[in-house]
Amino acid sequence: MLIKRPDDIKPSEITDEKIHLHRRRFLKTSAHTTLAAVAGIHLTDLPLKDAAAAVSLGKITSSPLSTDEKTTVFKDVISYNNFYEFSTDKEAPARLAKNFRTSPWTVSVEGEINKPAQYQLEDLLKPHQLEERIYRFRCVEAWSMVIPWVGIPLRDVIKRFEPNSRAKFVEFTTLYDPEQMPGQRRRTLNWPYVEGLRMDEAMHPLAILAVGLYGQVLPNQNGAPLRLVVPWKYGFKSIKSIVKIRFAETQPQTTWALAGPGEYGFYANVNPQVDHPRWSQSRERRIGEFFKRDTLMLNGYAEQVAHLYQGMDPKTLF
Amino acid sequence: MPKFVKPIIFLLCLVPLVSLVWSGFHGALGANPIEKVTHITGDWALRLLLLTLAVTPASKVLGWGFLLRWRRMLGLYAFFYAALHFLTYLVLDQFFDFSEIGKDIHKRPYITVGFTAFLLLIPLAVTSTNTMMKRLGRNWKRLHQLVYVIALLAVLHFLWLVKADNLEPLIYAVILILLFAARVWLQRRGKAIHHPAEKTASVNRFLG
User: Fold this and answer.
1) How do A283-286 and A143-153 pair as beta strands?
2) What residue ranges do the domains of chain A occupy?
3) Which of B32, B100, B164 shows the shortest C-beta gap to A189?
4) pLDDT of residue A315
């Protein structure tokens, strides 16, 4: 699958027209942006409604992996967030994360790799071209959104670290800073938040590290400045505000699996046939819609990722 | 207590509903309005239920007999918000999908107990009139002691649905336990006071 391509190929040559038109509309909104330092993080007065202070990214290419479904309105994407580090109330992170410091930001990369290092976020992103990825996002609580993320393929970043043959899993850790993250002052979860992927999952072209959405720098409440997005898994797998990436031979102990081993597994693949012990997963409420819609196997990405789980008991994949 | 206090409490109990409707018309219910309406009506059903339970012990401890005149109204408001909560689930959340609702009630413990609590509230609301009180006589009190079971189920309903943060339902659980304890304590104290009298009465009966 073609993921990266030289800049001189116009998106219209690869992308179907409908998506392309959508993309043009989108690029227009982030018009006056230039490629600034790496991700081109610089302040502009973007005329996007409801955005208090929009921070836009540099040049963003489109991706054939994007869905052409109608995206969830920006205001809902940035005001309805499960981010327990700030609060268990979904509307509170937008308020409580307002002054969260995302710069400077260091990501420690360690474990079974040839090139362990402490990266400044800018250096981590520098060699990569930002892409827009419009993905379905399905929360384990049975609501969903369609979000135009901006990010880079996780696999391209991982390749740079040169994992060795013992690297079977990748573990991600969120920042632990109770001063800034009031939700961490209470032990609602085992802080810091840890998530993980099997190596082949992490190397799948759909998995990305996101630094933005709707053409702008990731709002703090959405996991700024760096988060994971794995669209075929329940949202809690897509860990936010990452400060550590560790490669390991054994399966990481992930936060929700520790909090409720019978309710949240390591894989957490979206599966309408396997209910959460306390509620049904067969349908979901798409934010902005009245009627519930049927949840799709692997959140509609079965064609691309089902092969990763061949021969595994689907019951262990919750 | 002046007569105008009760109408004021009546209107105060309507504030959560009015604010919900107002927010609804002003698009201020957030990204997931159905979830918000479900939570707010459920919150107030539980709060008013516990408030109703607090009336009797509070009136005894404080010696404020007038509180008892508000008890029925508070209890009916608890039922009113519980009914709105249930209707939100039935109409907005499930949109009359009875097969899905049946599965929920059967398979999800938090819905099983929540639904049971709501069903049990219905006979209490129906028998809340003066006529029914008279007609049922002593049985009325027995029937209405169900309210403790209902409150317990309602707290469990809340406790079993949260994902990780139990703080809020646990606060309600502690309040319920305190109300239970107060009731038991008041009953014992009452008995201790009545005990000598009862003894005299039985002695008199024996002598008589």
Assistant:
1) parallel
2) 18-317
3) B164
4) 66
Choose among B32, B110, B161: nearest Cβ to A80. Answer: B32
Q: Is the pLDDT of residue B197 over 90?
A: no
Q: Does the beta-carbon distance from B110 to A259 stay under 8 Å?
A: no
What is the pLDDT at residue A53?
46
Mean pLDDT rounded to a whole number for chain B: 90
In terms of CA atoms, which chain A residue is nearest residue B160?
A278
Cross-chain Cβ contact B165/A75 below 8 Å = no
Q: Which residues contact A231 (CB under 8 A, 6 or more apart)?
A: A135, A136, A137, A206, A299, A301
Cβ distance B100 to A280 less than 8 Å, yes or no, reads yes
| Distance from C-alpha of A161 to C-alpha of A147, rounded to nearest angstrom | 28
pTM of the shown model: 0.83
Question: How far is the alpha carbon of B25 from chain A, nearest alpha carbon, in Å?
Answer: 16
Whether the pLDDT of residue A275 is over 60: the answer is yes
In this structure, what token pair is assigned to residue A234? 């329940």
Write down the pLDDT at residue A136.
98
Q: Which two structure tokens, joined as six digits, stand for B159?
A: 């406790």
CATH class of A18-317: alpha beta
Write out the two tokens for B50: 């516990």
| Residue ranges of domains in chain B | 5-195
ipTM above 0.95, yes or no: no
Does A143 contact B32 at a Cβ distance shorter than 8 Å? yes
